[in-house]
């Protein structure tokens, strides 16, 4: 029996645009998904609990293509099971085995589909646990690459390497197309606001793709996000938190223009700004889920707690360690 864990992440800058080759800077945070794998004769049994911070609990025993009895949308559950199936397929491929059954237990601090990288963390931790169980020692870069293949299959070919690379490596990373590297980052005062909901990553990515095809100015908006990220990298290197905040505000405006924000995300972003945070933006695919703000005081967390539509507000630390055996 092996347990591996991997962290979630927030996007300081660059989600969506990263799918089109622009750079992005995600940062791993200390919310982890823990996956335990144990060999069995054949087939796969998944037991998943606490897949949300304070929402539902998945209690699921059965074949991975069965239906767990949970109070969340089918598409979220399908997506979660899809990531696990594909991650196990990647682990078997790495070990060169066709027949290997697994009991899989997933415990996660990361709400599903909320922009904090739950699927990437589950894919990364599953590959690490299952390959270790099968006696294969993959490099962290190999795990990141295989987890990216998982996301690509589940998201119909539309995924960047950003989420999976960040979860595998930990810390702050920079991803531009195939070029993935870890970067230095100061300890940033992340505050997260969570609306209790989730977005459909595949549908949101497809929506941006359609806008880019329909309007040149939507393609320009995606390029403008790339320009914001490049300025953001300079601010990060200088440790200039005020400039990082201004650029996060700009990044949120551009994402809003691309149609991936929501009323509750905008309300939380404005609550954070009004409370004096350095800046705030949605994080991840959008449509619902989380915002990230920078504030080293308690003001933003308090303001978010009183914001209608905000279900939870909390501080998140940068996770310096990526995937690991527990
Ligand atoms: C989702 O967490 C981030 C997106 O940029 C999609 C991706 O990079 O694969 C929206």
Report what the structure shows:
- By secondary structure, the protein is of the alpha+beta class.
- The protein has two domains: 2-184, Ribosomal Protein S5, domain 2; 190-316, Alpha-Beta Plaits (2-Layer Sandwich), CATH 3.30.70.890.
- 41% of the residues lie in helices and 22% in strands.
- It is built from nine helices and eleven strands.
- It has helices at 74-95, 118-133, 140-154, 162-169, 201-214, 216-238, 241-257, 263-274, 299-305; strands at residues 2-13, 25-40, 44-49, 101-108, 172-176, 179-183, 190-194, 279-282, 290-294, 312-316, 324-325.
- The strands form three sheets. A five-stranded mixed β-sheet has the order 3-4-2-1-11.
- Strand 3, helix 1 and strand 4 (101-108) form a beta-alpha-beta unit.
- 52% of the residues are buried.
- Residues 51-65 have low confidence and may be disordered.
- The structure holds (R)-mevalonate.
- Residues 15-16, 18-19, 159-160, 162-163, 201, 205, 284-285 line the site of (R)-mevalonate.
């Amino acid at each position: 029996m092996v347990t591996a864990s991997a962290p979630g992440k927030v996007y300081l800058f660059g989600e969506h645009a990263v799918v089109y080759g622009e750079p992005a800077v995600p940062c791993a945070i200390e919310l982890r998904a823990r996956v335990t794998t144990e060999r069995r004769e054949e087939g796969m049994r998944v037991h998943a609990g606490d897949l949300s911070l304070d929402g539902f609990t998945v209690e699921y025993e059965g074949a991975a293509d069965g239906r767990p009895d949970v109070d969340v949308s089918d598409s979220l559950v399908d997506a979660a099971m899809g990531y696990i199936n594909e991650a196990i397929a990647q682990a078997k491929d790495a070990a060169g085995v066709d027949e290997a059954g697994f009991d899989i237990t997933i415990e996660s601090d990361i709400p599903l589909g909320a922009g904090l990288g739950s699927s990437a963390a589950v894919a990364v931790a599953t590959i690490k646990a299952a390959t270790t169980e099968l006696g294969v020692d993959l490099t962290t870069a190999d795990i990141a690459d295989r987890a990216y293949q998982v996301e690509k299959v589940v998201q119909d070919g539309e995924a960047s390497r950003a989420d999976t690379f960040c979860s595998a490596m930990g810390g702050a990373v920079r991803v531009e197309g195939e070029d993935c590297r870890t970067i230095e980052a100061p300890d940033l005062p992340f505050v997260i606001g969570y609306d209790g909901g989730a977005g459909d990553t595949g549908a949101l990515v497809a929506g941006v793709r359609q806008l880019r095809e329909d309007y040149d100015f939507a393609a320009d908006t995606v390029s403008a996000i790339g320009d914001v990220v490049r300025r953001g990298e300079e601010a990060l290197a200088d440790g200039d938190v005020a400039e990082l905040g201004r650029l996060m505000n700009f990044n949120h405006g551009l994402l809003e223009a691309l149609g991936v924000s929501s009323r509750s995300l905008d309300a939380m972003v404005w609550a954070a700004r009004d409370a004096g945070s350095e800046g705030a933006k949605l994080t991840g695919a959008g449509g619902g889920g989380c915002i990230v703000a920078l504030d080293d005081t308690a003001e933003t967390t308090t303001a978010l707690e009183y914001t209608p539509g905000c279900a939870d507000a909390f501080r998140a630390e940068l996770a310096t360690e990526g995937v690991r055996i527990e």
